[in-house]
Amino acid sequence: MNLVIDAGNSFTKAALFKKGEIVDTWKVASSGLDELGKIPSQFTIDAAIISDVSNVTQRLAPMLKTFSRVIQMSAQTLTPLKLSYTSPESLGSDRLAAAVCASHLWPGHPVLAIQAGTCITYELVTQNRDYQGGAISPGTDMRFQAMHNFTAKLPLVKKEQINFLTGTNTNDCILSGVVNGCIAEIDGIIDQYKETYPELKIVMGGGDTFFFDKKLKNRIFAVENLVLRGLNIILDHNLNVKNH
Questions:
Q1: Catalytic pick from 6, 52, 94, 208?
Q2: Which CATH number fits domain 1-72: 3.40.220.10, 3.30.420.40, 3.30.930.10, 2.60.40.10?
């Protein structure tokens, strides 16, 4: 079985895969990883891969050393994609993993992988599995925080589903601006890519997907645990290269 760990600034997610399918998942605060340290005593792990943007998994080093093969995602990690990105050393491994998973789901098609989380990220992969890059913009929570922090009087609004365009009070105006603004952004970027790639497939993941998926005019394929699935594909790719 494969252990996949995606460590973010606030939360660390992990998943156990067997023959490409998720057996179990965990989500813990990145400040407390004790629960993940118990995984080896419960399961037999053959290999592991770690995507870590905040170096929190250094605390798991003793556990990880017990596995026969551990891959720490970096700019040098082999993936099934060709990289045309001009600064691979600064490419987030979560972005690359999302692109890998999307391309794997739609072989032979151009794909756009969208992650709706802390940031909204867009990753373009051509039909020839060439990762081109994409775009990064603030996610919903970041937009709410920015308006509150950089103004004197705007309140900090909690994210919620809405079904209106015109807010009739300040709270609703902020909600409309953020939620409807994100929807318009995502649809607009998809439309621009489709001008060049008419057969483009859209794969979307991330915690805020449910805020947008039903309201987008473009058809998308929502994938739970998009990054974790992509990391597992990268791990299997490296294991296969080693075996050959």
A1: 94
A2: 3.30.420.40
Rounded to whole angstroms, the maximal C-alpha distance in the chain is 64
C-alpha–C-alpha distance, residues 226 and 95, integer Å: 10
Sequence spans of domains, the chain = 1-72, 101-226
What type of residue is 181?
G
Phi, psi of 142 (to 5 degrees): -65, -35
Helices (H) and strands (E) in the chain, counts: 8, 11
Examine the residue annotation and report whether 191 is marked as an active-site residue of this protein: no
Cα separation, 80 vs 135, whole angstroms: 21
CATH number of the structural domain 101-226: 3.30.420.40
Q: Is 160 exposed, middle or buried (0-12, 13-18, 19+ CB in 10 A)?
A: exposed
Q: What pTM did the predictor assign?
A: 0.92
Distance CA 145, CA 151 (A): 10
Pull the structure tokens for residue 226: 């998009």
CA distance 198 to 201: 9
Q: Per-residue pLDDT tens, the chain, 244 aa: give them.
A: 999 999 876 788 999 999 999 999 998 886 667 777 777 778 888 899 988 876 666 767 666 766 768 888 888 899 999 999 999 999 999 999 999 999 999 999 999 999 999 899 999 999 999 999 999 999 999 999 999 999 999 999 999 999 999 999 999 999 999 999 999 999 999 999 999 999 999 999 998 998 898 899 999 999 999 999 999 999 999 998 866 5
